[in-house]
Specification:
The complex is a heterodimer. By secondary structure, chain A is α+β, with helices and mostly antiparallel strands. Chain A has one domain. Chain A contains twelve helices and six strands. Chain B has helices at 2-8, 11-22, 26-35, 93-105, 114-119, 173-186, 206-211, 233-242, 247-265, 268-295, 299-364, 380-385, 407-461, 466-488, 492-536, 569-590, 611-628, 641-646, and strands spanning 50-61, 68-74, 80-86, 120-129, 132-139, 151-157, 163-170, 192-196, 200-204, 214-216, 542-547, 553-557, 598-602, 632-638, 652-655. In chain B, the strands form four sheets. Chain B has a six-stranded antiparallel sheet. A five-stranded parallel sheet of chain B has the order 10-13-14-3-15, with helices on both faces. In chain B, strand 4 and strand 5 form a beta hairpin. The longest helix of chain B is centred in the middle third of the chain and has 66 residues, at 299-364. Mean pLDDT of chain B is 82; it is low at 1-7, 379-387 and 401-405. The chains are: A alpha+beta, B alpha/beta.
Chain lengths: 232, 662
């Protein structure tokens, strides 16, 4: 298994080398983030067991949701889209907070564009989650034995773990809140639908394979300002 | 002294005197004098005689009583006194005298009464100039009034048989010009040049000279000599007739001098050009004043200055704005880099913190499954407590649980963030300042450019540029002034004329001094003669007379001192006759002079002349004629006994009783 996220997970170590500093690992955080996504993006299993109270479908959707967590500016843009559809003022406030807290800078965890869009090898993180008995990846194959897709079974232990973690480390509650926002977008949407929306952004769609997906922070901030201006 | 010097003056002496005065070579002076035909009159002129030999005419009277053809023939006239007489007035005396006068002047009809002229058909007058016979023949239709319609022939003969035609043509201007030339040439008269202050110089020739031969009571005798009392002409005539030495030289030099002076003064092209230029200069100067006024309080100039200043300012502004932008961009780049570092540091701190919290949480968990073999751990603590941290089943290395996020690293990262935050704030402030500066400088540039455009617009909105107009007009004025200056400088031609003029003026001066040296004596002689004659002619109470160098005759009469012009008409006529006779007499006595010895006196006996005086006058005239010799005097008068006593019968043309002379 390859721990591929190290190059990008800190979102900045590649761009500005920190001389004399060992690059910090991010496997616990990556695993925790992934677990939040899987937990909040999943649905109850038909027959719940301790090992499988909820199920997350599928890998593409996982990638699309991870992208929205790692790029707060794209999430903000998606929320503005939703605001324009629903007119929910709370959405605007959420977007304002994203920029107020400088999340597009501070919370950015850059991703590389691959053939199927933003992609991150999650094997290491899944191994850890699996090791602790929190998540069990399920390979679903066709009759010919070819892997069709992954599904992720989430244990009761995982849900309790998240609960305890947030209680013990309140600063990590941010992920829970963030996943609630992401779910406003991802709810009822397949991974493909979510990726399609992402491709609509030129900064995303035009990024060459292997290159880091650029931020759209300034555009979205302007969009917000425009909406705010129109609302005054 | 002067007199002797004048007498001794030779041609060479004269030229030398001129050359000395002009500080020139004798040859140069001689050339110029030759060029203008001025010759030294070293020998006094010899008088040439002019006298009539005959007059014949014919014509047809119409619209008159008596009517019908008429003719007259008066032949074999010679020196001496002749009389044309009639018992009654208006019998043709004046007409005969006037025809004679017209013939020698070549001027028809002249004084001939218009009816007589109209009736006249043929006229022949023969006269001798120094015994050379000349003949004037005139033919016209009776009734014709215009002289130009008549024909005239002027001819000369040595023997009265062979005639040489001198002129053949109309009886008007052609005849007049030819006659004048003939007389001036044959009688050796120079042109008299008289200068008038107002009208400039005038050349006088035969008409003026010949007017001195005709004296008439019917013409008001204005002048002592001739009929022009102005411009010193009577004196000039007198000088001419008495043959003063150097008079023709003086006259010729003066004529040339005046002509050149006139030529220079009136040089038409230059004078005209100068006038045009002067007029144009005045116009331009006027326009210039207007243009300067129109320019107003130098508004345009102020705008131009402002524009120039703005141009300089804009150039400086542009440099400053560019420099400020460079600083701003550098600051932006710097800010971007610091911002990037700051964000990276913050992300890293966040990562370290979250990694520590997440790690802490994960490590609280018991492993339940080997990530490698997926085998389930039944006893959680087994693996955890395994000293080599490997799976008890597969022996694969378990995830490093001991890799706890280093608290020191978080502290370092926190310090780094704090440092970068400060740095970022500083860079941000710096960038803000440079941005503000750059914006201010760009704004200043923009404002000054806008101002420059405004000034430019204001300038171009002004109607016509009076500045340009002023410059243009100043250039024109300067050019005109230069042209005028150039014109006023003597041209080569003028320089030559000026050089000639200097010589001519010297010639005039020297000739005049030679001439006037003798003049006083001669005038004294003439005065005495006039005094004597006038007294005989019955001018009463004469005590003395004086003819001055200006040609004015002062008559002392009964204690008063009137000039000639203040005398009565009769007295003036008698004095004129006396002067004429005196001039002839003095000239004859001195042996030189130009008076040709001809006098035509018409009706000298006007009402106030009493018979006795007339008789005395006539007697004196006849005596003078006899004494002088060679002169011819033709008198027209009412028949009186005195005439018969003085004028021999053969010298008389007498219409007796009611009869007409023709």
């Amino acid at each position: 298994m390859e721990l591929g996220s190290g190059d990008y997970s800190d979102g900045g170590s590649g761009a500005v080398p920190q001389i004399g500093q060992r690059e910090p690992g991010s496997r616990y955080r990556d695993a925790l983030r992934l677990l939040f996504i899987l937990a909040q993006g999943s649905e109850p299993t038909e027959i719940p067991t301790d090992d499988a109270v909820r199920i997350f479908r599928a890998e593409k959707r996982l990638m699309a949701m991870d992208f929205l967590v790692r790029y707060p500016d794209y999430l903000a843009d998606a929320l503005l889209d939703l605001y324009e559809q629903t007119g929910e003022q709370e959405l605007l406030e959420e977007v304002r907070q994203i920029f107020l807290k400088e999340e597009p800078s501070v919370r950015l965890v850059r991703m590389v564009r691959w053939r199927h869009g933003a992609y991150q090898n999650v094997d290491d993180a899944l191994s850890m989650l699996s090791y602790y008995g929190l998540v069990r990846p399920m390979q679903l194959s066709d009759g010919d034995g070819k892997v069709r897709r992954y599904e992720y079974l989430i244990s009761a232990k995982a849900l309790a773990f998240l609960k305890d973690t947030v209680r013990e480390h309140p600063e990590l509650a941010w992920y829970r809140g963030r996943l609630e926002l992401v779910m406003r977008i991802a709810h009822g949407k397949s991974g493909s639908a979510l990726k399609e929306w992402q491709y609509e952004h030129p900064e995303y769609g035009n990024t060459m394979h292997g290159d880091i997906i650029a931020s759209i922070s300034s555009q979205v901030e302007k969009r917000l300002a425009k909406i705010d201006e129109a609302n005054v | 002294m002067k007199k002797r010097a004048a007498v001794e003056m030779t041609e060479l002496g004269w030229i030398k005197a001129i050359a000395e005065q002009c500080n020139l070579d004798i040859d140069d002076v001689r050339k110029v004098l030759l060029k203008y035909g001025i010759r030294a009159q070293t020998t006094p002129p010899r008088a040439k005689s002019l006298r009539f030999e005959s007059i014949k005419f014919s014509g047809v009277r119409s619209e008159s009583t008596p009517a019908g053809p008429f003719s007259l023939s008066w032949l074999e006239l010679d020196a001496g006194v002749y009389a044309v007489m009639s018992e009654r007035n208006l019998r043709g005396k004046s007409s005969i005298l006037n025809m004679l006068n017209a013939a020698i002047r070549g001027d028809f009809p002249g004084r001939i009464k218009s009816d007589i002229w109209k009736w006249l058909q043929a006229l022949e007058v023969r006269f001798r100039i120094d015994n050379v016979l000349h003949r004037l023949e005139l033919e016209k239709h009776a009734g014709e009034e215009k002289a130009a319609q008549g024909s005239a022939c002027l001819s000369r003969s040595d023997d009265g048989h062979q005639w040489v035609t001198l002129y053949s043509g109309d009886a008007a201007e052609g005849l007049k010009a030819q006659t004048e030339q003939l007389m001036m040439e044959e009688l050796d008269f120079p042109v008299i040049y008289a200068h008038n202050k107002n009208t400039g110089g005038h050349a006088h020739g035969w008409p003026l000279i010949s007017s001195a031969f005709y004296l008439s009571s019917s013409v008001e005798p204005k002048a002592l000599f001739g009929d022009l009392p102005v411009d010193g002409i009577p004196l000039r005539l007198l000088q001419l007739f008495i043959g003063l030495p150097w008079v023709s030289t003086y006259s010729a030099a003066l004529t040339a001098q005046k002509q050149i002076e006139q030529g220079i003064a009136n040089r038409p092209s230059q004078a005209g050009t100068a006038t045009v230029l002067k007029t144009r200069l005045l116009e331009v100067e006027e326009q210039l004043t207007e243009a300067k006024k129109a320019r107003g309080p130098d508004n345009r100039r102020a705008l131009r200055l402002q524009l120039a200043r703005l141009d300089d300012t804009i150039a400086a502004d542009r440099r400053q704005a560019r420099d400020a932008n460079i600083v701003m961009e550098a600051d932006e780049t710097s800010l971007g880099a610091i911002s990037e570092s700051f964000e990276t540091a913050r992300r890293r701190l966040k990562l370290l913190e979250e990694e520590r919290s997440a790690g802490y949480s994960f490590r609280q968990l018991s492993p339940s499954c080997c990530p490698a073999c997926e085998g389930r751990f039944e006893i959680a603590s087994t693996a955890k407590s395994s000293p080599d941290a490997s799976c008890a089943l597969c022996k694969n290395a378990l995830p490093d649980e001991g890799a706890e996020a280093d608290g020191d690293r978080i502290t370092d990262a926190t310090h780094l963030v704090a440092e970068l935050k400060e740095s970022f704030e500083q860079a941000k402030a710096k960038q803000k300042r440079s941005e503000t500066d750059a914006l201010a400088k760009s704004e200043r540039l923009r404002l000054n450019m806008a101002e420059a455009r405004r000034v430019q617009d204001e300038l171009s909105a002004l109607p016509v540029d009076p500045d340009n107009r002023v410059i243009e007009l100043e250039a024109q004025a300067k050019q005109l002034q230069e042209l005028l200056t150039a014109l006023q400088l003597p041209s080569a031609e003028d320089s030559e004329a000026q050089a000639d003029l200097r010589i001519l003026r010297a010639a005039v001066e020297i000739s005049k001094s030679s001439m006037t040296a003798m003049q006083e004596d001669i005038l004294g002689e003439i005065t005495d003669a006039v005094m004597s004659l006038a007294t005989k002619f019955g001018v009463s109470h004469l005590t003395s007379m004086h003819l001055d160098n200006g040609g004015r005759l002062k008559v002392c009469q009964g204690g008063a001192n009137p000039f000639f012009s203040a005398l009565t008409m009769g007295e003036r006529l008698r004095i004129k006759i006396a002067i004429a006779l005196a001039a002839v007499e003095v000239a004859r006595r001195r042996g030189h002079g130009r008076h040709p010895g001809l006098l035509i006196i018409d009706s000298p006996a006007s009402e106030e002349v009493v018979s006795k005086d007339f008789e005395q006058m006539l007697d004196s005239v006849a005596a003078a004629a006899r004494n002088i010799g060679g002169i011819q005097i033709i008198i027209g008068t009412i028949a009186r006994e005195a005439v018969e006593a003085v004028v021999p019968d053969t010298h008389r043309l007498h219409a007796k009783g009611e009869a007409y002379l023709f």
